[in-house]
Amino acid sequence: MKKPACSFRLFPVGRGLLVLAALCCAQFSSSAAPTVLLRDNFNGTGTPGSGNLNYNLSGRQSGALGLVPYTGVGNVQVGNGGEPHDGGNVLLCAFAANAAALDYNFNNARAAGGITISFDLDPNAHNNGDLTHWGAVVLGASEASRTTFINGATPHFGILFRANGLIQAFDGNAVVTPVEPNWAPTGNYSLQFHHFDLVITGPGDGNPFDGAGNTQIDVYVDGGAVPVYSFTKVGGYADNYINLQSSDVADFDSLIIAASNPPTPPSDPWQQVAWAGDLDSGIDSSHTYTHAYNFGSASSPNINGVTLTGVDGGNPSVGGRFSVTGIPNNFPDDGGANVTGSSITLARSFIYGGNPGTLTLQGLVPGRQYLLTLYSKAWDASGNRIIKFSAGNDQRVIDQDSYGRNDASRNGLRIIYAYTADGSGTLTVTMTPVIGANTFHFYGFSNREGTPASSAWQYSEWTSDASSAVSTAYFYTHAYNLGSANNVIINNLTFAGQGAQNPSVPGVFSLANWPGNSSTTAGRERSLSTVWCRAGVTCSIFTRRHSDRRDA
Questions:
Q1: Is residue 505 part of a domain?
Q2: Same domain, 299 and 322
């Protein structure tokens, strides 16, 4: 398939100078660079209790997938200041029968082209005299067995790294290292961090976690060029839930899960982002909205030119438009704290009590792309209100309290689902709490078509990340920062630095007749962003107008 192309020419307007600062194009491409799906630095500074694995997710995690919560069993902690490494900003796994499991399946499309799992590990962080103690990683597990022990009977691969420098590996409960190889020369590696990379590929079809073909696992230590251990799982693994665990006390840090060679830029149809007011509400009247509703109240706020119709009471519905089932309770006013502008009305009332609850949309056009946004706010300390959102085969586990509760205030969040309507013209989303009594607080929702309703070319003010229109809910074919060699990350999307004049990347993009660049700007400035292209490709040029020029 021919790759979409983006071509732009910018001109001075009167005596005003437009400086091309960045370009991005959203859609599929035929290849993509290695991409960090999830990075966790385990920064637990200030945690009220180190046993809360999900404390400060928004401050410690990044990557294309956004925030991914954990399920913990046994003694697992983040932010224990008594640990010997990084001021306690590590994942501590202590004593037998523990596991810190990511609530995400890194399989199918997210594993296409291979996966790399990297981390730093001290396998004996409290200097136990028994050097056979270990830290371990389990991968290839199913959702139901995501916290499985390293030699559990369910399908998975597990590998442990002992403090004496030896390795033991398991395929399910079968030992696949009858003679334990070395990850380092035999010795004492207690109280030391070492870096481990598990490079996982699918030699046949290129996907190690699609249940077809083989899964090849190669383990590298401290940047070595040769794997210290390799294993091939004939027939591969269909799932890929991952957990970290230990036998005594082990410290993990700098966890990175990356797509090694993805055929297209990896993303996920479900995303979560912070919501503080109208500017970052995601509501934009340039789009066609099929649904926009405020729950728990008859009030109908107008946000950025779009009215969200108030529907009071539990299990709200509007005939031929949408219905909610299993969510019978109504909370009329929580004060709307920590959300500003007209959005405060949307942020005041909610429905709750769904275990599970469902939202069904009607009146969709089969084959058309849509973006659904659910609105909510933090209520508890992080980790208490974790919800599984499901739509067909797409599911995502999200912590309603991801962005934290600030004393008596409650920070907002948006949960976004990008989808294509099926032949029924309907969509059903199911919301299931992990802890049955801690159900989702549903403030309202909007659903819009995936492309703008008006002109192919548009512009709007750009003042911050929130107004950049950059969202990893979409796939990006191009993202570049021009005029500087520095990479820039906006809303978890990396803009690759291009410092040269007339920059180009062969086969990707080129610029002509741009002989100059500027790495700094000064003075009072206005900003432009969001230029849209037709043919199903959304393109944005970010630019600044210098204050020492005057518009015609």
A1: yes
A2: yes
